[in-house]
Specification:
It comes from Panagrolaimus sp. JU765. This is Serine/threonine specific protein phosphatases domain-containing protein. The chain is α/β, with parallel strands linked by helices. The chain is 33% helix and 18% strand. It contains nine helices and twelve strands.
């Protein structure tokens, strides 16, 4: 299910919410708009409590979890492909199911977001407002929805190219710096926020800070030793990053690899937010 978001500033600043607050508030918003079975409401609240307090799902059956997933489809399906949100927000990249690391993020107390990257077929913001969710295999195989999920920024010498086939994914595009500049100008934003690729230090800027990749799964696959980041966007649209160092699993690493990753981790500055590194994001 493809989704892309834009973020606007609000007049009043709100403190960064805790995980339980986020879940509860989002649940309440959906509850107000849709009819949810009382049994599902109670089950959802119990699961949220178990996750936020004990950080586990023991005691719930597989059938109960599927009931929640089925209900979420009913809540999400009517939503448009392009969703507008209000700051302040916290933006995550790929978490790859690493729930305990996600919980570590929440222990710390003009912009467009997508999973993969940009598309040559997006000519204006109106293109996104009119975007429909793909419903068939053919609709998933080409076009804007595919690009939002699978395109990547080019690096090195390829960064000079506008658009080229994405050989790494065998689908969609690799896009260069000029493509990012033209895209941002066309839809009137200052920063593209995407995920989709591992970053050694959790996040990485491209194209004169006009695009940033965020990766939120530390020590991916248990052996990569990478950091993870999430991006905090304030009501004034200034941003900062929360970056986690990896928890290394010594049982999966050779002595040489462990020494290399420990040295790499020591050299990472994880202080966040950093007042000296904030950026104004979006013009609306």
């Amino acid at each position: 299910m493809t989704s892309v978001s834009s973020i606007k500033s609000t007049a009043t600043a709100v403190p960064s919410p805790s995980l339980s607050t986020c879940l509860s508030e989002n649940y309440s918003q959906h509850e107000a708009k849709f009819t949810v079975k009382p049994a599902i409401k109670g089950l959802a609240k119990r699961i949220i409590h178990r996750l936020t307090v004990y950080r586990l799902l023991d005691g719930f059956t597989e059938l109960e979890l599927f009931e929640i997933l089925d209900s979420m489809i009913e809540l999400i399906e009517p939503a448009p492909a392009f969703v507008e949100m209000s700051a302040p927000v916290v933006i995550f990249g790929d978490t790859h199911g690493q729930f305990n690391d996600l919980m570590r993020m929440f222990s710390y107390e003009k912009l467009i977001c997508m999973h993969g990257g940009i598309s040559p077929d997006i000519k204006s913001l109106d293109t996104l407002y009119k975007l429909k969710k793909p419903r068939t295999h053919n609709e998933c195989d080409m076009g804007i929805a595919l690009d939002l999920m699978w395109s990547d920024p080019a690096t090195g010498a390829d960064a000079c190219c506008a658009w080229q086939f994405n050989k790494m994914r065998n689908a969609s595009w690799m896009f260069g710096n000029q493509s990012v500049k033209e895209f941002n100008a066309a839809i009137n934003v200052d920063l593209v926020v995407r995920a989709h690729e591992l970053c050694k230090f959790g996040h990485l800027f491209y194209c004169d800070k006009m695009l940033v990749t965020i990766f939120s799964a530390p020590n991916y696959c248990g052996t990569d030793g990478n950091c993870a980041s999430c991006m905090k966007v304030g009501a004034d649209l200034k941003i900062s990053f929360v970056t986690l160092k990896p928890i290394l699993d010594k049982s999966k690493l050779s002595m040489e690899k462990l020494a290399e990753l420990e040295k790499q981790s020591k050299n990472v500055d994880v202080k966040s937010p950093n007042p000296s590194k904030t950026f104004l994001l979006v013009r609306f």
